[in-house]
Each structure stands twice: as structure tokens, then as C-alpha cells.
Design brief:
2 copies of one chain form a homodimer.
Chain A (H helix, E strand, L loop, with lengths): L4 H27 L4 H13 L4 H8 L3 H13 L3 E5 L7 E5 L1 H22 L4 H26 L1
Antiparallel strand pairs in A: 1-2
């Protein structure tokens, strides 16, 4: 089966736009004295919380010893809370604290302010159409992913 | 400064569409007996080649010992070639072999075939407009990134 040229081009644009935005965010993190692994770990804890170290390790592909150092720093900086599960006291869980949530939001704002430079070039109508068509495509692949799970 | 709602929505769509496509690709990799770290490493070598282990380590945030195991497997499977730099025999470099390039292309095809399910729902006109508007935004942030470097 041959892929449509339109698909290749749209995939290229989505993939590389995302890459540029991540690259920009990464630079801003460094300016703020944060590192990418610490930020990614914070992001992943927010996504999975409450989460234990082995689940986090499975998702992150960072060596356990490195991950422990990163999480220790996040806890020390009061971005993440480490506590024992009320259901099973042997299990240690992680969750993002208010300060960590604020930090994640700030980073998202930085990313979106950069993207907005491009969005501003579009007319209101183009912006509306872009959202409409992206939503159509997104909802379709979202539903296909959900079907696969079921 | 307040962000436009349109920016937030477009960022959300781009970010999550990319995430869904990566998630799908990851599942397909597992079905093919590949692992995500091996695939990511192969991808990064293709991006940076010729590249030495310490450059690769800096980009990947994987522990050196883990990265060595991953690269050994890629070399063993003839996806990657390891050779001494002709300029400096002390430097060991990596590059992707033909079989590795084929593997990367196949994975990209799988990703794009999935995306095409959604693209097919759009009319020819919607597809054209989507490419046009995404290009406008992409070119703008691409140029802004280039300016930052210069």
C-alpha cells in the first residue's frame, strides 16, 4: 500500500513542529537552571501519579540509580512528595506538589508563547479551520487507539 | 501576557497527536520484537551520524552502561556500524547501516499508515488547507529558532 503524499507531509509537519517546540522548551529549562531529565521525570510523575519507582522506571528508560538521584532532587526542591501508600505501607508512592504543578504550567506557557508567534500569522478563519481539521484527525486516531485497548 | 485560547488548543492537538502516534509506534515495535530504547538509539544515531558514544550519551540521557548494551545489540543485529575515525584512530564512531535505515523507514511507514486513517476523513481541500496553515506556523517558528542560533 502506498502512502498519500499529504499524509507524509502532515506527519512531517506535526513531528517537526513538536520537535522544535521541545527543543525551545529545553533551552528555556537550561536557562532556568533545570535539566531536561528532571523536567521529564516531573512531567511523567504528574502523568502517572500516584506512581511508585518501578512503574516510573519502566516508563522512563533511565537507569534506576540515576532516577533515584533525580527524584531525590525533585523531593528536596519540594516539587514532588514521597509517601507510603495507605493501602500497603511497604509501597512508596510519588505525587507532584503544588509547587511542581506551578513549575510544569510555567514551562507549558513558555512553549505556547513561542508557538503563538506562528499562530498570530494566521487569520481568525485559518485558526478556526486548523483547530477543526486537527480535531477531526486527532479524534479519529484517538478512537482507533481506544478500540485497540478494548 | 495572556495566551490565546486558539494557541492552547492547537498546542494540545499537536502535542497529543504526536503522543498517540508515538504510542502506536511503540506498540508496533514491541510486536516486532524491538524495544523502544533500541529504536530511539537507532533513530538518534541516524540523526547525528557519524557520532561517538559520548555525544550519543549526552543526547539520550541513558546511563553509559545501558547505552553500551543497546549499541552492542544494534551492531550485532547489523543495524549499526562501529568504526575507527580515519582522522583520529582513537575515536570510535557509529553510523546506521542500510539494514538500519530500512528498519527506520518501515517504522515511519507504520506511523504514517495509522495517521492516514484520520487524514482520509478530510476532503482534498481540507488536506491542502491543513498543509498550508501548518507550513505557515512551522516556517515561522523554524525561522525564530534559526535566528536564536545566529
Amino acid at each position: 500500500m502506498k502512502l498519500k503524499d499529504e499524509t507524509k507531509e502532515i506527519d512531517y509537519l506535526i513531528r517537526n513542529m513538536n520537535k522544535l517546540l521541545s527543543q525551545y522548551t529545553k533551552e528555556q529549562l537550561i536557562n532556568k537552571g533545570l535539566t531536561l531529565p528532571r523536567f521529564k521525570t516531573l512531567w511523567m510523575i504528574a502523568k502517572l501519579e500516584p506512581v511508585n519507582m518501578s512503574q516510573l522506571h519502566e516508563e522512563m528508560y533511565i537507569a534506576n540509580s540515576t532516577l533515584t538521584v533525580i527524584v531525590d532532587r525533585l523531593v528536596e526542591d519540594e516539587l514532588v512528595r514521597r509517601y507510603r501508600s495507605p493501602k500497603d505501607r511497604r509501597v512508596v508512592l510519588l505525587e507532584v506538589k503544588a509547587k511542581g504543578k506551578e513549575c510544569l504550567e510555567k514551562i507549558l506557557d513558555i512553549r505556547q508563547l513561542f508557538l503563538e508567534e506562528g499562530i498570530k500569522l494566521l487569520t481568525k478563519e485559518e485558526q478556526g479551520n486548523l483547530i477543526k481539521t486537527l480535531n477531526k484527525v486527532y479524534n479519529c486516531i484517538y478512537e482507533k487507539m481506544e478500540e485497540r485497548k478494548g
